[in-house]
Amino acid sequence: MKKITILTLIFLPLACPGELFLEITKGSEDPFKVAIISFEGSASVSKKLNEVIRNDLNRTGEFDLLDASLLLPLIVEENEINYGDWNLLGMDYLVTGNIINMKNSTDVNYEIYDIQKKKKIRSSKVFGLPNQLRQLAHYTSDGIYESISGIKGIASTKLLYVIDVHSKNLNTRYRLMLADSDGANEQTLLSSSEPIISPSWSPDGKKVAYVSFETGLAKVYIQNIATGKRDSVLSKNTQISSPSWSPDGKYLSLTLYQDGNAEIYILRLRDQTLTRMTNQFAIDTESTWSPKGNKILFTSGRSGSPQIYELDLRRLNARAKRLSFEGSYNAKASYLPNEEGIIFVHRSNDGLFHIALKYKKENFLRILTEAKMDESPSVAPNGNMVIYGITEGDQSMLAGFSLSGASFKLPASQGEVREPAWSNFLR
Amino acid sequence: MTANLRYLNASFFSFCFHALIFLYIYGTFDTNNSQSLLISKPLMVQLRFESEIQAAQKKIRPVNKPPDTQSFQQQERKTNSSESTESVIPVIEEPMLYSNLADLLEQEESVILSEQDEKIFFYSQKIIQTIEDAWMKPRNIPEGLVANLRLNIQPTGRISRVDLLKSSGNIRFDNSALQAVRRVETLNFFNEIPSGLYKKEFTKIAVSFKPS
Q1: Domains along chain A?
Q2: Residue B29 falls within a domain, yes or no?
Q3: How many whole angstroms separate alpha carbon B52 and alpha carbon B72?
Q4: Mind listing the pLDDT tens digit of every residue in chain B (212 residues)?
Q5: Is the CB of residue A162 less than 8 Å from the CB of residue A171?
């Protein structure tokens, strides 16, 4: 497939071939009932914008949107709103808005009304360049989501993932991809004939780190998204893998194989100082940082099977604390943003791999997914959604779920999609 | 020096002012908090209470003659010993029953004392039942969360205002509690409540959401 640039994509409809497409498979138990009156504006932009906003809100699983076909697209004035009628329809909130399309900018104005309190709870304006319509829609839906649920929206965040494209002459291409959180606006950051693994976001969302085998050895690279400029991290003649950025962006935790087995190191990016964090005969790898940056999680085989450990970085010579005790395989852990729990891959007694959640205060884990081979979960910055890799038949693709019970799939049009990484908030 | 003093004063006033704002937001001046006793006893636990109160009532009624503290204590001891010999199986539940016995006696006394209190108890149970029916506990939340709400209720039973007195720390949990109250909207049995009683007890109530 030809490389598609962003610019051409912007003008294509939502589910154009080659793009990831969303499927809502389940709603949460007690959604907010919201009526969105289609935003009025010039036909060229309003259809697309309304569609993206509705899809974003549906995907959260926490909203039950009134069927748009039931609503007349009329501009409702504040003093004309008949709260009693909306209440009879069972609505909790009403959203109205309009789009003003000017030559150099597109403005979206929207209002949110609380039906029961009978008042306006938000009046906002989002503006941007006319060719950033999707982004505008994402910002709008994030605003609606946040003012109703109290949780920051993640529609305007981005995803990284890797696609393995198998062609007929058996040469596999590996692509590092960047896309909107709904799978749209796919963009290739790197294409290589050798495997790419473990993509990781810098906290400011401007750079990515990943492992590439292009030199024959596993090496970590940092690439600037905007400029495409990339540099190899550490010029050591050893395998380096699983990079993870500290929340302040100053450090990178890595796995190095120079000591005979995999050990975790922390690299200060400013002067390339390496500090060894683990010293074990067993494998230690897959480190991730706590949101405050004072701890790291990692997977270690020191107990005889892969289990999750936590290391406190503030204490000198601190002993790693084991966090997972259930079953014989727990790996690829990351923290929820408020650090109240961890999300990881767990192999259950029937031998299947699931995504699991364990709260710090609880001594049991909660299995959150049902497929057979779920892998590499990545938590959205609002802590409410997780994206992960699944295998259906012989096709691997991305799927996501919210902790409140909604789930969706991002089926790939081509290739094997794996190892998603969710960005931070990008504003 | 004078300038420094002025800064000092200014910062002191600023501190006081901000402290006041903070305390206000925190709810220190909110006198209604104390009233939360009425229904803010954990929803589920209170339901369990009911049967226990009835059990306690049955036991105590025949010996309800003298308000003599000594005999009362003896009585209590008697029930203790008699129960511990009687029941062998529910060993775990017993400590809870005993530790609550004093409270239960007190509560029970007040229930008997006046018909009004009985009514309060009755309507409180009804409110709890209605809200419990409307509440859907969100999935995948940690155990042990508690959220307290205060409801302002109009004489018609319409809930005119909901405030979050104490957040559980989990937004989804808080939302589910607020959403439950939202779904209830109107407590339709409020017209049965005598207006005097309503004014005294049911204009503002606090509810605690605490899944067991």
Answers
A1: 30-149 (3.40.50.10070), 158-422 (2.120.10.30)
A2: no
A3: 19
A4: 566 888 999 999 999 999 999 988 887 776 554 444 444 444 443 333 344 444 444 444 443 444 444 444 444 444 444 444 444 444 444 445 555 677 777 766 665 557 777 888 888 888 888 888 888 888 888 888 888 888 888 888 888 888 898 899 888 889 888 888 888 888 888 888 888 888 888 888 888 888 77
A5: no
Mutation for A interface: B175, B181, B185, most A CBs within 10 A: B175
Q: Provide the β-strand partners of residue A210.
A: A221
Q: Is A357 in Cβ contact with B172 (below 8 Å)? A: no
- Tell me if B50 sits within 8 A of B107, measured CB to CB: no
Domain that holds residue B65: 36-209
Task: Using an 8 Å CB-CB cutoff, list chain B residues near A150.
Answer: 171, 174-175
pTM of the model: 0.75
Q: Do A32 and B179 touch (CB under 8 A)?
A: yes
Rounded to a whole number of angstroms, the distance from the CA of A286 to the nearest CA of chain B is 25
Counting the structural domains of chain B, the total is 1
**CATH number of the domain to which B141 belongs:** 3.30.1150.10
Residue B5 lies in a domain: no
Q: Is residue B31 part of a domain?
A: no
Question: Cβ distance A9 to A185 under 8 Å?
Answer: yes
Of B138, B174, B185, the CB nearest to A116: B185
Residues in B touching A403 (Cβ below 8 Å): 139-141, 172
Q: Is the ipTM beyond the 0.85 threshold?
A: no
How many whole angstroms separate alpha carbon B200 and alpha carbon A251? 61
Nearest to B111 by CA among B103, B121, B101: B121
B1 in a structural domain: no
